[in-house]
Design a protein that fits this description.
This protein is α+β, with helices and mostly antiparallel strands and 407 residues long. The protein has 16 helices and eleven strands. The chain has one domain: Cytochrome p450 (Orthogonal Bundle), CATH 1.10.630. α4 runs antiparallel to α5, α6 crosses α7 and α7 packs across α10.
């Protein structure tokens, strides 16, 4: 077996991520979920699929969702936690983001009930285990079987009714009974409308929808917990910044971007060479050779992010034209669709248009406004089911704090 080639440093990693000769190879362990989904496609097949799905993610959608849809979703999800005075942050992150994921993926919630949300969370957690099987510490065959069972249950309970409604709408649009604008703006509708052109069968569409469900909720729930932890730790030694967190949206977004830089969903990206070639430094990569792109080293490069690059510092100065979150969202053909929705677009040159700070910043702003704080009687626990450094549990108290309690 040929030894893998490791690529580190921001510019080298950036170049490798944009190199079309390197094929995504980290997410192929669970074909029952990931076979021929957007993330595992390459070449023309990837370009065609991405082209039809990318239309959904124009920047006006990010602003519309933050302004019109997300506030109600957040208020509804947060209410029972406020009533109880407690929450587990990863679980809350999953529940609040499951609605966003469902909207984008095209999954209807007919009852709009807590039990539906719980079912979707359970299914999506299992899909996430399949998508990240590469890093799982569990028996992988057992996980594959569990993912297959969850996918079939999800198909019956949610996918089939959602598909039937959209197929009916698309038939009426084709017959001229409805305007094209009547089609829902989601992944399922796009795939159904282009199924013949893209050669998509029902199982392929099911996998793509399930993949988008997990992609929109799993990483966001983990990122939310990391962000909260970093902010809390920062304020212990920088109390002067506490008030800014709920009054200065730009500062809060800087905190989010800084945490995203330090906590990419995966520390590395794996690729396989589709043909032999030579790197700029003279290293030869054989056809079929494995390339490991070190995203963490890219995000921690002192020349770009400062000598304290390994530390959380929302006030840091970053090299010109380098994104504050580094390569956490990827770059090139596999750039994360959710970058603008989760991380935000920041300030705008149009004074009449409100800045879009992203769902992560909005979630944190609301949690901190409600005095969310670590539960001193229940310390956070790492997630031992994966090699990824995520939190399995992070208990919080929420509501009016006791005197001198944070924040």
């Amino acid at each position: 077996m040929t030894e893998a080639t490791r690529i580190g440093g921001y510019h080298s990693a950036h170049e490798a991520l944009c190199d079309h000769r390197l094929i995504q190879s980290m997410y192929n362990e669970c074909d029952v979920l990931m076979d021929r989904v957007l993330l595992t496609l390459h070449g023309e097949a990837h370009a065609h699929r991405r082209a039809i799905e990318w239309r959904l993610f124009r920047r006006d959608f990010a602003r519309y969702y933050e302004r019109e849809v997300y506030p109600a979703t957040l208020a509804q999800t947060l209410a029972p936690y406020l009533a109880s005075g407690r929450m587990d942050l990863p679980e809350f992150g999953f529940r609040v983001n499951i609605n966003l994921s469902s909207d984008i993926a095209g999954i209807d919630r007919a009852e709009d009930s807590e039990s539906e949300t719980s079912a979707l969370v359970a299914y999506t957690r299992k899909f996430s285990e399949g998508a990240t099987l590469f890093h799982s510490t569990r028996d992988k065959d057992v996980v594959r079987e569990e993912v297959a069972n969850a996918l079939q249950a999800f198909k019956q309970q949610f996918f089939e009714p959602s598909k039937a409604r959209r197929e009916s709408l698309l038939r009426r649009i084709a017959a001229g009974e409805l305007a094209e604008e009547s089609a829902p703006r989601d992944i399922l509708s796009v795939l159904l409308a282009n199924r013949d052109e893209q050669d998509l069968d029902d199982d392929m569409i099911l996998r793509e929808v399930a993949f988008f469900m997990q992609a929109g909720s799993h990483s966001s729930a983990n990122a939310l917990t990391h962000c909260f932890h970093e902010i809390i730790q920062w304020c212990l030694t920088h109390p002067e910044d506490r008030a800014r967190l709920t009054t200065d949206d730009a500062f809060l977004q800087r905190c989010v971007h800084e945490s995203l830089r330090l906590h990419p969903a995966s520390a590395v990206a794996w690729r396989t060479a589709s043909e032999p070639f030579t790197l700029a430094d003279g290293t030869h990569i054989p056809a079929g050779g494995t390339v490991i792109i070190d995203l963490m080293s890219a995000n921690l490069e002192p020349e770009l992010f400062g000598e304290d690059a390994t530390s959380f510092n929302p006030h840091r100065e970053i090299a010109h034209r380098i994104p504050p979150f580094g390569l956490t969202f990827g770059i090139g053909i596999h750039t994360c669709f959710g970058r603008d929705i989760a991380g935000g677009l920041g300030q705008t040159k149009d004074a009449a248009q409100a800045p879009h700070i992203g769902t992560l910043s909005n979630l944190l702003k609301s949690l901190l406004a409600h005095h969310a704080r670590p539960d001193p009687e229940a310390p956070p626990i790492a997630d031992t089911a994966t090699e990824r450094p995520n939190w399995g549990s992070y208990p919080l108290l929420i509501g009016a704090p006791a005197k001198d309690d944070y924040p």
